[in-house]
Amino acid sequence: MPQLGRLLILVGAILLIAGVALTTMGRIPGDLVYRRGNFTFYFPLMTSILLSIVLSVLLWLFRR
User: Fold this and answer.
1) Which band of pLDDT confidence, cut at 50, 70 and 90, is reported for residue 17?
2) Most buried pick, 30, 45, 47, 59, via CB within 10 A?
3) Do 29 and 47 form a contact (C-beta atoms < 8 A)?
């Protein structure tokens, strides 16, 4: 059980850091924004990659 507690603390710390970074920066460098006239296209490329990595690590840890 202590391992699960440490894992939850680690995940919480990572989410806290990510939340603070997103609220202060507005978006992650690497996200694509295309503006032309009244049209704006936003594609969160780096956000998608980071989310995929975090979820992959979490799933790997839970399957161990």
Assistant:
1) confident
2) 47
3) no
- Here the tokens at position 63 are 């399957």
Quickly list DSSP for 5-63. Answer: HHHHHHHHHHHHHHHHHHHHHSS-BTBEEEEETTEEEEE-HHHHHHHHHHHHHHHHHHH
Structure tokens at 60: 């790997």
The Cα 54–Cα 15 span in angstroms is: 10
Model confidence, pTM: 0.54
Quote the CA–CA distance of 41 and 6 in Å, as a whole number: 40
